[in-house]
Design a protein that fits this description.
Blueprint: H1 2-6, E1 12-15, E2 28-31, H2 57-61, H3 63-69, H4 72-101, H5 122-133, H6 148-176, E3 186-188, E4 192-197, E5 200-209, E6 215-229, E7 235-243, E8 253-254, E9 260-265, E10 286-295, E11 301-309, E12 313-315, E13 317-319, E14 323-325, E15 330-332, E16 340-342, H7 350-359, H8 364-390, H9 393-398, H10 404-423, H11 427-433, H12 440-460, H13 464-470, H14 476-479, H15 482-492
Parallel strand pairs: 4-12
Antiparallel strand pairs: 1-2, 3-5, 4-5, 5-9, 6-7, 6-8, 6-10, 10-11, 13-16, 14-15
Helix pairs in contact: 3-6, 4-5, 4-6, 8-10
Catalytic activity: K(+)(in) = K(+)(out)
Biased composition (Polar residues): 446-459
Subcellular location: Membrane
């Protein structure tokens, strides 16, 4: 494990302990010279495949693609070598036929008809093959009808020559028409920048097209390469994470006529959620940018790549504008394409900013106001108690339970206090806090029940004879004396 991590890059060395403790600690990186890139600025990937063993035969199974992927010097070498070997082989076949028939000894005999006229040595046989293969036809060397083996060899030569021409010329044509050089006119900014845009911390870089021909269906993608260690202790070298540059909104589909600034919003879903200006000085990561599109002139797919390491990301910078309006057209100034300028940007990560915003949110003010309202309600209830004590004893006894108004007011004050505090919360928290048992219907039913309690209590306080009369329900009013009937009506008003 340690050897694998030491080979990960020349820029740092990871030191780890044994796994006997149940889990490996996070890797500790120490600087070791120049930063090793996974993808160069020109888009070349610094990856070499080694120790293939018996897998090299797979390259021969796809020989055409293997030849196209070779460098130009090897392509030219194979092209020249293949034609030279084929020509020498076919010239040797013609010379063998002339030698076996004895045409070389009777070349100057006018009465003798050879297989190929005027072929009396190997150079003359080689010239005959070149004239036939290239369809030059000087007319001095030609095949006669007295040589059936020569006719068969001539047919074989024509078929073999067509196959070799189709294979090698097709390979050279595909290699010359590859749109790799089209990527040379697609520009990326030398640095990436992090600053505020539309109130959000955003990672930005710039792309441009130097040609007037457009890139059809241009699409851009970003990958974050960063080594990490899982909670199980597994070390993942160069783990690839996706950076959202507008996939959900369609902003990754580019109309690349003028330089564009590509944005990645840093939020809770971003891998840079914990990245701050201070932590970026110790981080080790690489952002790989891939731009794909169809070349308008050839219709072939082109891909341009570049990368940004942590020291190429500028915190608190923004790109200079490069487009200006002229008379009848828009002008792009590519001299300011890579230029940036500093702008005020908080040095904290998005996570730290959200935590500070949560701590400074005005949730204490409603609590203070609620406590004041609670005190006012208590004072009001105390005033009602004082008023109740000043009433005559007979009226106090008629009201039954003295704490009825106090409880009702307390319930109403608690309900309004809860509604006020919930109104200051976000909608999601209000939905979570809304318990089905605290509905208005239950509050009304509780109030009605409490209103019925004093009535039953007041009936219990009546003399036995009057309680017996009250058992009649609705007939009680008709049997009571006028004075008690008046007192009973005053209770409900």
């Amino acid at each position: 494990m340690s050897a694998l991590r030491r080979k990960l890059g020349d820029e740092y060395q990871v030191v780890s302990t044994s796994a006997s403790g149940g889990g490996l600690p996070p890797p500790r990186a120490t600087p070791r010279g120049k930063r090793q890139r996974f993808v160069d600025k020109n888009g070349r990937c610094n990856v070499q495949h080694g120790n293939l063993g018996g897998e090299t035969s797979r390259y021969l199974s796809d020989l055409f693609t293997t030849l196209v992927d070779l460098k130009w010097r090897w392509n030219l070498f194979i092209f020249i070598l293949t034609y030279t070997v084929a020509w020498l082989f076919m010239a040797s076949m013609w010379w063998v036929i002339a030698y076996m028939r004895g045409d070389l000894n009777k070349a100057h005999d006018d009465s003798y008809t050879p297989c190929v006229a005027n072929v009396y040595n190997f150079p003359s046989a080689f010239l005959f093959f070149i004239e036939t293969e290239a369809t030059i036809g000087y007319g001095y060397r030609y095949i006669t009808d007295k040589c059936p083996e020569g006719i068969i060899l001539f047919l074989f030569q024509s078929i073999l020559g067509s196959i070799v021409d189709a294979f090698l010329i097709g390979c050279m044509f595909i290699k010359m028409s590859q749109p790799k050089k089209r990527a040379e006119t697609l520009m990326f900014s030398e640095h990436a920048a992090i600053s505020m845009r539309d109130g959000k911390l955003t990672l930005m870089f710039r792309v441009g097209n130097l040609r007037n021909s457009h890139m059809v269906s241009a699409q851009i993608r970003c990958k974050l390469l960063k080594s990490r260690q899982t909670p199980e202790g597994e070390f993942l070298p160069l783990d690839q994470l996706e950076l959202d540059v507008g996939f959900s909104t369609g902003a990754d589909q580019l109309f690349l006529v003028s330089p564009l600034t590509i944005c990645h919003v840093i939020d809770a879903k971003s891998p840079f959620y914990d990245l701050s200006q201070r932590s970026m000085q110790t981080e080790q990561f690489e952002i790989v940018v891939i731009l794909e599109g169809i070349v308008e002139t050839t219709g072939m797919t082109c891909q341009a790549r570049t990368s940004y390491t942590e020291d190429e990301v500028l915190w608190g910078h923004r790109f200079f504008p490069v487009i200006s309006l002229e008379e009848g057209f828009f002008k792009v100034d590519y001299s300011q394409f890579h230029a940036t300028f500093e702008v005020p940007t908080p040095p904290y990560s998005v996570k730290e900013q959200e935590e500070m915003l949560l701590m400074s949110s005005p949730l204490i003010a409603p609590a203070v106001s609620n406590s004041k309202e609670r005190n006012n309600s208590v004072e009001c209830l105390d005033g009602l108690d004082e008023v109740g004590t000043k009433l005559p004893s007979k009226l106090q006894k008629i009201t039954g339970r003295e704490d009825f108004p106090k409880k009702l007011l307390r319930m109403s004050s608690t309900t309004s206090e809860k509604a006020y505090s919930m109104g200051d919360l976000p909608m999601k928290l209000q939905r979570i806090s809304s318990v089905p048992g605290n509905s208005e219907e239950k509050l009304v039913s509780k109030t009605t029940k409490m209103m019925s309690d004093p009535i039953s209590q007041s009936v219990a306080d009546l003399p036995p004879k009057l309680q017996k009369l009250s058992g009649g329900g609705s007939r009680m009013e008709g049997n009571l004396p006028p004075k008690l009937r008046k007192m009973n009506s005053d209770r409900f008003t």
